[in-house]
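Record type: monomer structure entry
Structure origin: computed from sequence
Chain ID: A
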Amino acid sequence: MSESTVKKSSDSTGTETGMMNDSSKRIPTREKVAYGFGDFGNGFMFDLGQAYLTKFWIDACGIGAGAVAGIFAFTKIFDAFMDPIAGSFIDNRKNISSRGKFRPVMMISAIILGIMTIVTFTMPNGLSMTQKIIYAYAAYMIWGVAYSFTNDPYGSLASVMSRNSQDRSFMATTRQVGSVGAQFIAGVAFIPLMGLFSEGHETHGYFIAAAIFAVIGVCMFAVCYFGTRENVKVHRNKGAQKEGFKDYLRVIFRNGPLGALILMTLFTISAMNTNNQMMVFYAQYNLGNIGLQPVINAIMMGCSIVGVFMIPTLTKHFGQKKTALVSFGVGAVANIANYFLPSNVFTFILLVTIGYTALAIPNGITWAMVSNAIDYGEWHSGIRKEAITYAAFNFSRKIAQSLAALVSAGVLALTGYVANAHQTPGALNGIKAAMTLYPGICLILAAVVIGIFYKLDDDNFAKIADDLDHGKWEHGTIGEDN
């Protein structure tokens, strides 16, 4: 049934029951903490692009806002279609060493991702505008390929570290703490660091700051690589045919919980990324002081870290779905109120902090939900496809990132934004709407999706986990009846 010896345990009647795993057993806390360092490192490279590439290309490199919107939109869609390729490659790996199926691919790709992060924040001298745009397209597309081969195995890793629900909630917390922690540091330190090293040349400052962040990011992935293990015993058919695009589509359309998460993520990630991208513009032009950007980010992201630490407690008492729904409601109210109230530093900071914290909590819970959806897919079909399932989920994140880039750069272009100049009332209102109103509407839509379509609650998953522990799927024994 499995590549490893099936262990024996006693059920409540005292009889011997063949088990592949035991979902009641917990993995060491150090492994769960080490897992979070992966998203900490990921954030040092990913969040720079989401928060500062728009400003780097527009203000430092002189590329027009409309062209930048096109770069983000096209490259993110390209990245999205890279995810099934990366997922299929990883799931098709046959010769798996003692280091595991996912960890080696993750670590090698993380090093490449670090190099490409530096390249994206580089603009060679002497290029024409057309050449600058081509360079930006090429660099960010290659960055996206490296990101897919880093993030797909990293996200899949959690599903084979533990099947215990509390472990997964803990790992979702450490991952989200790592993610928000990286956002915090990038939001607070990057602009001052860039200014420190600019020496009168803004592009030089971006290059040095990006290099520092990339090196730290790779080091954090190394902590994850050396500190985690793939503990869950999984049936893998070494004679199975290689997966293709039809398998990818089958995973999406046969996995109801995954489909709900994909649709929800389109709204949550586009809301968060738009917030991060517009913050530097809002501080500089709407509040009149770019120096407020790191201060606001420090407060906003610092509070969201505190909120994320509450995830295990909240999900233990209220469940994953209810906690997410309430958080979406709170975040929507805060963001929409922030749009209609006059621009004031204190009310803005208060409401954007509430909105961002309320968004960070369900985003953290999502990681546990994805691992549960992977298990549901195995239970429902009898075949386990970790990487390609996570790739399908990651597809929605890439589309959401593309949507956020279109909203951010598109609003700037449509409302008449002019780099490093006094902005018109229309441009200021566009910045404010993208910063507050758009995330508020997105969170309402996310709540509708998760409330209606996500059926995998805690009780349903407990039954599925027990079946998988005993090598069973919905219609029989895994490896024998499918």
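Annotation 1: Confidence is low (pLDDT under 50) at residues 1-17.
Annotation 2: The first strand starts at residue 7 and ends at 10.
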